[in-house]
Amino acid sequence: MKLSFSIVCTGVGLPRPVEEHRFHSTRRWRFDYAWPERLIALEVEGGVWSGGRHTRGAGFVGDMEKYNAAGVAGWRVFRVQPKELTSAKTLNMLRAVLL
User: Fold this and answer.
1) Least CB-packed of 31, 33, 62, 75 within 10 Å?
2) How far is CA 99 from CA 15, 60, 64, 83, in A?
3) Structural domain boundaries in the chain
């Protein structure tokens, strides 16, 4: 059984993230995981090596627009590959920005 990322976070002493957090009032943009009170977001970028949506023209440009709008609103957005989501590297990065 694979543990959810939220459970992994709380298990290592990190605050529980909000999943699929909608951060923009007029766009349907969502962050995969967010800590809204800290304006910290984590995006899981799938298809990096297989030509997924995030690496093709329209998807890439759309992500740029989303991340730029988030930055203007004061968000700090961190990005990881799916295989890195629960890695020590990612959890340590989150620990550095959240604790």
Assistant:
1) 62
2) 9, 31, 28, 23
3) 5-98
Tens digits of residue pLDDT in 61-92: 889 999 999 999 999 999 999 999 999 999 99
Note the residue count of the chain: 99
Is the Cα torsion angle 4, 84, 44, 33 positive or negative in sign? positive
Tell me the pLDDT of the chain averaged across its residues: 90
Going by C-alpha positions, the residue among 61, 66, 80 that lies closest to residue 29 is 66
CATH for 5-98 is 3.40.960.10
**The pairing of beta strand 76-80 with beta strand 40-44:** parallel
pTM: 0.86
Identify whether the C-beta of residue 86 lies closer than 8 Å to the C-beta of residue 49: no
Asked whether 45 and 5 are in contact (CB, 8 A), the reply is no
Question: Which residue type sits at 33?
Answer: Y
Q: Rounded mean pLDDT of 25-52?
A: 86
